[in-house]
Amino acid sequence: EDKKSLNVITRHILPHFKNIIAMRFNGLEELQSHSSPTVLLDCSNLRSIYCGCFNFKAQEEFAVFEWLHSPRGDGRPKVLHCSFDDRMVVGKLKEKFLNAVTSVSYIIEYFLYFGTWNEQVVGPFELENERTRERLTFKHIFRYTWWVLRAPIARDEKQWTEWEMEARSVNEKREKEISFVLWS
User: Which top-level group of life is the source organism from (predicted)?
Assistant: First the structure.
């Protein structure tokens, strides 16, 4: 019965949401299996994703990384909100950044609720990629909140400050947002 409902949603309802600008999900793998592995990329206006954790299976991680590293047409950063305590994710972001040949902007807001983060292992950093003329910054914002910020080295600071404030605002108006909570 659940599979039948999910098939109806993915075949008949999801195509109407290709213009959504924000998505919350739990169970991306289930959504992908009933729609398309490129479901995130298919939503061309998708600006932000909130997912409970970054402990994805390989296919989910690939989909989120592909979405995150595909540029928005308007030059604004994509925003990903998630929780994690795995330094391997930061390592993968560093590697992707250092090997990049095209620019993309994003803000990843990590919530480290469990206090397991060890700054001696992965502390704040700032890297530059001369090919893309970008900077990747990992910084502590407050309490349990850390950011990975990928942005042009030469940028409009006023505009970026505004975008960062938008990304930070927890109670922002959520228009055109769709939530998926799926369990298999």
Answer: Eukaryota
